Structure formats: structure tokens, C-alpha cells
Amino acid sequence: MKKLILDLDTGVDDALAISYALGSPEIELIGITGTYGNVLVEQGVRNALAVTDLLGHPEVKVYQGLPHSSTTDHFDVLPISAFIHGENGIGDVTIPDSNRSVETESAVDFIIDAVKTYGKDLVYVPTGPMTNIAAALDKAPEIKDEIGEIVLMGGALTVPGNVNAWTEANISQDPDAADRLFRSGAPVTMIGLDVTLQTLLTYKETQQWRELGTKAGTFLADMTDYYIKAYETTAPHLGGCGLHDPLAVGVAVDPTLVTMLDINMKVDVDGPTRGRTIGDETRLNDANKTMKVAVGVDVPRFLNEFMTRISGLAKGAK
């Protein structure tokens, strides 16, 4: 069985990613590492603890990661992030705080220790900035050859970004960290806006969760309805909300959900295109392609997997 670490800035789609992971029998969620982005890291780990409790999985340990990018000394949540995810990150829905605390071990050390313990059986899924994994690679470069796979949500190769014409939000938080990851030689799969904006959820699906009559189902419905409502303002042409982070988990479980391009990638860190994810021209002719980029997705099959797994989890949670 694959062992999974989720690295989250726990907003709405991060909470849905947790739900997808917990509803997937093929994997074991061995820990959540917190990062910043949709919310401050402290709020993110609070959300991760509370959500795993609500979903009936208090055994999932949560580790606090780095609070800001590798090139700054602080982080402030952007107003657009608060608009999309709510001030508390989970659609301004109130759920009880966990009586658990974050682990004393740092997220970076936990990532390294997990790679040493599980090796090729470990899949690491970052759905926020790449700051924690870049720091882990800086501290223990050898883990790039020992880890099973890194499936990240971030970037955009064949479509525009959602911060500007070329930059996706997660990459924009720490382009330097993302570039170090992309160039590291670690086995990385990029699940970007190319595919995540094809996987849309509507009020029809959230109503199914509401009709389960469970606290978990009601929470998921209320939280996601907030997210869909925000999308009606920020991207009215889509007709729903993008399932960004859950798709990364879906691909970690079943890579055949997407069509992938083998290509060595880089992130621009200088000049006007800072944050752009694009092929690395210096490794264009390198026969060893360490990265894959999703460029197509089986939308009906993924949405069916998504609803089946999360609905089953929400129905069973007390």
C-alpha cells in the first residue's frame, strides 16, 4: 500500500483533498505537513487537525511547516485568497477545534524521515507552495533518489496562469523553491491548471453530500458551496469550482486518470515572467526526463471517483 503525505495550505480544495485521500483504500495517509498560502500556516494546521477529526480520522498526524517563502521573512494572506476560501480557509464554516496539537517534529524533518522509512512506497503531494519540500531537498539532497513520487498541484503549461498571464498561484508563492524542486531530478508530476480547471464541481454534487444527513456531509456541502459561489465571481465562465488539490491526490492514487507529457521543467525566477512554469531548454535533449506534466484528464471517471470516495467517507463519519 502506498504511503501518502499531503502538504497543505488547508483551504477548501485542500480539505477536499484530505477527504479524497481518506476515502481511498489504496493509500494510507501517514501525515499532513502544513504550509502557508490560502491561510497562514497556523490556521492551516488548525484546519487540518479539525477536518481530520470531523471525518473520523484523528490518527492522522499534522506537522507544522515553514511559515513563509524561501526568499522572504514574512507572509500575509492575499485578499483574493480570503475571498475564495473564506477568512478561516474552509469557507467560513465553523467546526470544532481539535483537542490534538501539531507534532513537535518539524514538517521538513518529518518529510525526510518518511522518505528514509518508506522509500519508493512514499508519495508526497504538495498542494501549496513548494517551500517545505525544497527545504527538505536542501537538507537531505539524497531523498530525490529515494522517494517514490512527488505529485504536485501547481503550475500551468498549456493555459494561462491564475495570478497573471503566466503564473499559477501556488508557484507564485515561492518560485525559487519550485524551481529547485523542478531541477532537482526528483520524480515529479505536475498537476496544473491545464487539467484541474477541467474538473468542475457544482451545487448538484454538493447537494448529494447535504442529503447524507451527517455532520461531515453538511460541512463538505457548506464549505464547497462557499467556494463555488466565489468562482461565480472570479471565473463565471467555468460553471463550477475547480477541483485542483483533489485531482493531485487522484493522480497519486491512479495516474491513468490523466494524460502526461514527459518533459524536464523549470520555473522562471528572474525578470517579468517570474513564476512561469515551462520546459527547461538546457535539458531539452536530455534523454532522462524526471518530470511529467498532466495535459489531459478523464473528467467523467475522475468526478465519479471523487464523488464515490468522498461521499462514502462522509456517510460513514459520525
Query: Overall 3D geometry?
Result: globular
CATH architecture annotation: Alpha-Beta Complex
**Main sheet properties:** 8 strands, mixed
Q: What would CATH call the homologous superfamily?
A: Ribonucleoside hydrolase-like
Number of strands: 12
Strand order of the largest sheet: 3-2-1-4-5-6-12-9
Keywords: Glycosidase, Hydrolase
Organism: Bifidobacterium dentium (strain ATCC 27534 / DSM 20436 / JCM 1195 / Bd1)
Protein name: Inosine-uridine preferring nucleoside hydrolase
EC number: 3.2.2.3
How are the SSEs placed, and which strands pair?
Layout lengths: L1 E7 L3 H11 L4 E8 L6 H14 L7 E3 L14 H7 L21 H12 L3 E5 L4 H9 L3 H4 L2 E5 L15 H5 L1 H9 L4 E4 L1 H4 L3 E2 L1 H8 L4 H20 L6 E2 L1 H10 L4 E5 L2 E3 L9 E3 L11 E7 L1 H18 L2
Parallel strand pairs: 1-2, 1-4, 2-3, 4-5, 5-6, 6-12
Antiparallel strand pairs: 7-8, 9-12, 10-11
Helix pairs in contact: 1-11, 1-12, 1-13, 4-5, 5-8, 10-11, 11-13
Can you give keywords for this protein?
Inosine/uridine_hydrolase_dom; Inosine-uridine preferring nucleoside hydrolase; uridine nucleosidase activity; IUNH; purine nucleosidase activity; 318 residues; Inosine-uridine Nucleoside N-ribohydrolase, Chain A; alpha/beta
